[in-house]
Amino acid sequence: MAQTLPQRMNLCKKYCNMLDRAGIGSQDKSLSMWQICKIDFLQFLAHMASGDGGVCYRETLFIRDNLGFHFTPDQLTVFKYERNLDGESFRSRIPTAVTYFANADINAPDKLPGIRTAITRTLVDTYRQLGEEFIACNNQVSDRELEDFTQYMALLENYMKLKGIRGHEGNGKTDSGQNTHIRPGEGQGKKSEEENPGKTVREAEKEKTVEEYLAELNDLTGLYAVKQEVNTLVNLIRVRTMREKMGLKPPSVSLHMVFSGNPGTGKTTVARLLSGIYKALGLLSRGHLVEVDRSGLVSGYIGQTASRVQEVVKEALGGVLFIDEAYALTAGKGEGDFGQEAVDTLLKAMEDHRDELVVVVAGYPDLMNEFLNSNPGLRSRFNKFLYFEDYKAEELVEILKGMCEKADYCLSPEAEQYALDFFSRRIAEKLPGFANARDARNFFEKAVANQATRIVNLPDIDETVLQILQIDDLQTIEL
């Protein structure tokens, strides 16, 4: 069960008291750890205040009710500028309490063993919930406010990753693998009520948290603009839900999307993660992905296209329907082509099942614009665009190294440099067949085949020989 903000704040206070008792809290003896933590929270909210046009009375009431600080809107504005909370320096400033929490085990390994992840994760999750409810407390939500919140949460998540703190709320693991569903002072051997060892791996996969899906997204190579857009969308959806619960007018949110980009840029991968995110947010009941192209929707006979589209939609209900190369549906408008019938049937299904179906259409940028312009109904329903840039050579090498690692291979230094030069030339040539990450996949598979041919008859083959891909295995590869 999700914690309310007061419950989470109270848990943070207990953890702060634990640090004080362990003697690893604030070095400023005039302030307790909890006081420092509340000041950090205040500065965070003051930073976000006025992001929607100006500090309002509801925002100061929110700060008073949750943190106990009394400000008028003018006073909070003055506080914000006096502390330089509107500048770039604050956007890269790790809160003092977070640094204490993240280093708890390091500073006193014998006093607070094994709960560094638990207490730091709790604090960062409190920042997330504070920000979401703060944004929702008034009648305005701006892009700048959501962007500030998204960037600051990314700062905290990256800091935790830098400190080696993995996992998200609900995963039940600390740095040492212990259960973290505990209250300060209770034993760590007790199983959480949330654990269910009888669930299958597939069921557990479906129940991942939003944060876990976002972590997967943010760990992907490249795609920086796409990651920012998805993180901002998640924040907007969360705020929208909170505003609805409070009886406030919710901002409009379009869940249908256009993914534009060249082949191999990760569109299907992101669509799959997006389906899980929508499920975790409660927007979809199943959160699965159904992937089709023109051939899966269009029939060559009169009357069959509509029924085929309806079958695909039925399969996708409760999840995301991903239509790759969607422009092919409207590319041939000659006599006997039923692509337009597929589009018309799809648009009607999107209207009939607006709460059960999300559609993502994907393809080359220019051709996707032609697709959207072919029907006014398409342009009105697909108004959110995610552009997937081609990968840089360095990013393709990182993808290649990731493939190697997953398959228990590695590149020698010479081979890695050769791969970088190879992809740099391939990108510079701008050949029509360039396929981004698919090129990296094909390159990897050919390198493995070449290595096998090179080593199969060697007299002494050890584990190292089996793992390392040498430059000789790469030099004859053609894509």
What's this model, at a glance?
The chain has 479 residues and is of the alpha/beta class. The protein has 23 helices and seven strands.
Walk me through what this model shows.
The chain is an alpha/beta fold. It folds into three domains: 5-183, no CATH class; 211-388, P-loop containing nucleotide triphosphate hydrolases (Rossmann fold, 3-Layer(aba) Sandwich), CATH 3.40.50; 393-473, Orthogonal Bundle (Helicase, Ruva Protein, domain 3), CATH 1.10.8. It is built from 23 helices and seven strands. It has helices at 5-22, 33-48, 57-67, 73-82, 88-91, 96-102, 104-107, 116-136, 143-162, 201-206, 210-218, 224-245, 267-280, 294-297, 304-316, 328-331, 339-352, 365-373, 376-381, 393-406, 413-429, 437-455, 463-467, and strands at 257-261, 289-292, 319-323, 357-363, 385-388, 410-411, 468-469. The strands form two sheets. A five-stranded parallel beta sheet has the order 2-3-4-1-5, sandwiched between helices. Strands 6-7 form a two-stranded parallel ribbon. The protein is globular and about 70 Å long.
Strand content: 5-15%
Order of helices and strands: HHHHHHHHHHHHEHEHHEHHEHHEHEHHHE
User: How is the largest sheet built, in terms of strand order?
Assistant: 2-3-4-1-5
Give the number of DSSP strands.
Answer: 7
